[in-house]
């Protein structure tokens, strides 16, 4: 064991996440970043306004209501004219469209005494009208420029449609594919998730203060992605070290990127519901991370403190949440109903109320809403900037880049554009709605390009396409199997497009069985019997257990839910106009019993996977994933030269690492070169490996590119259970390669500061 702890950075007080050093950021640092300065005029305006406000009006600013019929949670407090008249509406969610929002703002301006503009929020998670691939899908591009660009494009569309604020990005680490909301995040790795969180925040807030960008919201604070058994909303019990090391860093990355709002999580964390957790929201987020924006609760989460059993009454629940640091109360109306009385009874401090109100008024001021409450309502912009050609082009490119080629035996893919007859089978071939995935905002079926259309667009009429649905998702009927079999037999190649329905993942959509639902595996069996090359295209929101499908398919493409440009992007990949480059950001297990089975698990006393010996293993399933984190094939091949690095870190704590990567195949292509590190001996048990850098590089066929990384030993520390960041000298394994399981290793020693 290393005896010297060379740097106890500090307690959580200066939670300086190891990832904060920009090891290999692909994100251009000089972005269009125009933050509105908190000037004297803002302070003066807000303070003067607050002097005019009654207590009721102040608490009203802390209250958010659903503005229409779209419910993204259970029944909640209803919006009424009386609330507007009494100045009790600070924000409205779930309404989009300039005309609709203008009406609501007008009503507020007419009815309320002080005419404080409403802040409008919407879940713009992966696009607004132009739907991009789901966040999990997009994470498989490992392309931070794409994340920035799609978030920016979504912000432009949403703001052109009157929205001020999105509830995104979701930055919850998810290591359990049973949890349906894995689809909304960036996967299982914290390092990658931090980079993506930063890119998405900067993208949404790209031009803050101008009516073409929106406030981002880091959610769900915190550890929502680790519920027991993967059941949404279930309690979370994890060590403080795991909390600090795995779940907190993406939130810290959002603060560092300037995120303006946070959302508290539904779950309890080690026995304390996040929405009533003062340590989390006040000590950590506000006092130590110095977060300047405001915190909104999740939907009815304040009221749900009663169901958690930590509050007996509405009043207790609202006090618990408010005193913990939740500035704004989403949907249940409890602040409006309870805080005034609590204040009169001396159970809440007026200074705290004023501080929360000030944060929200400042947010409104910074958007220019006091100058012009209708600033975001420009019908001409809405007509021209929503669903623009540039957004569609981006959606197609990103969707193709998100796809991960899992298998390609005998180079089945790409298919020739001159194939005579193609059978297209499966419930997702001709589907518009499901392929957008969960949280499709205001995405419309009519704008979606189906796989059938995409392939027809690509091949024209010269190729005969025989489409049969074959089966549904859950319907047990196999009636169409014989028709599907005949179509397959009469074709040169079979493309099966199968997977989950959109709402089999997402909020409250946990699954315990992760195989293809319904009769789809049986359909693939039938197709296989036709004896033609079988290409399986998967669309799903989470990693599935694909052992059987892997055996059935000659080629297997994980297309996720690609969004509006679905069919065009699938066709681009299948017919070689785009070369697959995506790599998994979540491990795909062999079976559900292995879950959680993430790549960066901690070491143990009896490692290995040796039959008949005492090792950490199941007796019935090997200790491996079917497809590991970081895995993904291309149409071309890459070969890696030897890792070049010294066997000792430099005195300044840095280590330069390089590797030559050669494209030895027949296509130009992109490779995601990954750098992992393992701490060989430490004062605490460390993961077997951890991602510490990556680079996505384009390499023309036949050429070699040198890829360089710089590691800093100070980024190789860890968080202990006292929540101290410790950096220890010693030997580190340096691993470089094409996936978490395909790596070459070298060792380098860091002797610590002299
Ligand atoms: C509940 C979800 O947990 C959250 O992510 C979402 O933003 C809100 N509902 C509002 O729809």
Automatic annotation (TrEMBL):
Domain Fibronectin type III-like: 671-740
Any single biological process term in GO: glucan catabolic process
GO molecular function: beta-glucosidase activity
PROSITE patterns documented for this protein: GLYCOSYL_HYDROL_F3
Lineage: superkingdom: Bacteria
E.C. number: 3.2.1.21
InterPro entries attached to this UniProt entry: Cellulose_Degrad_GH3, Fn3-like, GH, Glyco_hydro_3_AS, Glyco_hydro_3_C, Glyco_hydro_3_C_sf, Glyco_hydro_3_N, Glyco_hydro_3_N_sf
Keyword terms of this UniProt record: Glycosidase, Hydrolase, Signal
Position of the signal peptide: 1-22
Catalyzed reactions per annotation: Hydrolysis of terminal, non-reducing beta-D-glucosyl residues with release of beta-D-glucose
Keyword Hydrolase (UniProt): yes
Name of the protein: beta-glucosidase
């Amino acid at each position: 064991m290393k005896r010297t702890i060379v740097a106890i950075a500090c307690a959580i007080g200066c939670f300086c996440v190891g990832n904060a050093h920009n090891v290999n950021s692909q994100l251009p640092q000089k972005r269009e970043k125009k933050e509105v300065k908190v000037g004297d005029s803002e302070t003066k305006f807000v303070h003067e306004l607050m002097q005019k406000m009654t207590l009721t009006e102040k608490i009203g600013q802390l209250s958010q209501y659903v503005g229409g019929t779209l419910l993204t949670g259970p029944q909640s407090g209803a919006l009424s004219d009386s609330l507007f008249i009494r100045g009790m509406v600070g924000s409205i969610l779930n309404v989009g469209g300039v005309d609709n929002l203008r009406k609501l703002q007008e009503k507020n301006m007419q009815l309320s005494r002080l005419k404080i503009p409403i802040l409008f929020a919407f879940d713009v998670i992966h696009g607004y009208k132009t739907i991009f691939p789901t966040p999990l899908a997009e994470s498989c591009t490992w392309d931070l420029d794409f994340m920035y660009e799609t978030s920016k494009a979504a912000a432009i569309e949403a703001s052109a449609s009157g929205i001020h604020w999105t509830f995104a990005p979701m930055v919850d680490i998810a290591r359990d594919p049973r949890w349906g909301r894995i689809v909304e995040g960036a996967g299982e790795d914290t390092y990658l998730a931090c980079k993506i969180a930063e890119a998405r925040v900067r993208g949404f807030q790209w031009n803050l203060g101008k009516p073409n960008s929106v406030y981002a919201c880091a959610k769900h604070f915190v550890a929502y992605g680790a519920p027991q058994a993967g059941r949404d909303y279930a309690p979370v019990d994890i060590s403080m070290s795991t909390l600090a090391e795995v779940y907190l860093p993406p939130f810290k990355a959002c603060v560092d990127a300037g995120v303006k709002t946070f959302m508290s999580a539904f779950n309890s964390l080690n026995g304390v519901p996040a929405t009533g957790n003062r340590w989390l929201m006040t000590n950590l987020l506000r006092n130590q991370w110095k977060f300047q924006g405001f915190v909104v609760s999740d939907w009815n989460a304040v009221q749900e403190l009663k169901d958690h059993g930590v509050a007996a009454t509405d009043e207790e629940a609202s006090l618990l949440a408010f005193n913990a640091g939740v500035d704004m109360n989403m949907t249940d109306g409890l602040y409006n109903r309870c805080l005034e009385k609590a204040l009169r009874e001396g159970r809440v401090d007026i200074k705290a109320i004023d501080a929360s109100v000030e944060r929200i008024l400042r947010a409104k001021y910074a958007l220019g809403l006091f100058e012009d409450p209708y600033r975001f309502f420009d019908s001409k912009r809405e007509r021209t900037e929503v669903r623009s050609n540039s957004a569609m082009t981006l959606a197609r490119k990103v969707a193709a880049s998100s796809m991960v080629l899992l298998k390609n035996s005998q180079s089945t893919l790409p298919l020739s554009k001159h194939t005579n007859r193609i059978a297209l089978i499966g419930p997702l071939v001709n589907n518009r709605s499901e392929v957008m995935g969960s949280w499709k905002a205001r995405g419309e079926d009519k704008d979606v390009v189906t796989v059938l259309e995409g392939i027809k667009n690509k091949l024209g009429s010269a190729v005969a396409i025989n489409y049969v649905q074959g089966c549904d998702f859950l319907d047990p009927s196999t009636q169409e199997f014989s028709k599907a079999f005949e179509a397959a037999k009469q074709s040169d190649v079979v493309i099966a497009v199968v997977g989950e329905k959109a709402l089999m993942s997402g909020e409250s959509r946990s699954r315990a069985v992760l195989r293809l639902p319904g009769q789809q595996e049986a359909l693939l069996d039938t197709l296989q019997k036709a004896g033609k090359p079988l290409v399986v295209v998967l669309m799903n929101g989470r990693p599935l257990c694909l052992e059987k499908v892997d055996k059935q398919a000659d080629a297997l493409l994980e297309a996720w839910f690609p969004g509006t440009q679905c069919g065009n992007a699938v066709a681009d990949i299948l017919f070689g106009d785009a070369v697959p480059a995506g790599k998994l950001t979540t491990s795909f297990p062999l079976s559900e019993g292995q879950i959680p089975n993430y790549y960066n698990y901690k070491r143990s006393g009896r490692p290995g996977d040796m039959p008949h010996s005492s090792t950490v293993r199941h007796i019935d399933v090997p200790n491996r994933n079917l497809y590991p984190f970081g895995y993904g094939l291309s149409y071309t091949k890459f070969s890696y030269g030897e890792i070049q690095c010294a066997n000792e870190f430099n005195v300044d704590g840095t280590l330069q690492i390089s590797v030559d990567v050669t494209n030895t195949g027949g296509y130009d292509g992109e490779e995601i070169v990954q750098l992992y590190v393992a701490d060989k001996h430490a004062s605490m048990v460390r993961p077997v490996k951890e991602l510490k850098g990556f680079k996505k590089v384009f390499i023309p066929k036949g050429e070699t590119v040198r890829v360089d990384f710089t590691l800093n030993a100070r980024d190789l520390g860890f968080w202990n259970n006292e929540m101290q960041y410790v950096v220890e000298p010693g030997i580190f394994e340096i691993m470089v390669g094409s996936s978490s399981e395909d790596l070459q290793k070298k060792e380098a020693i860091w002797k610590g500061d002299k």
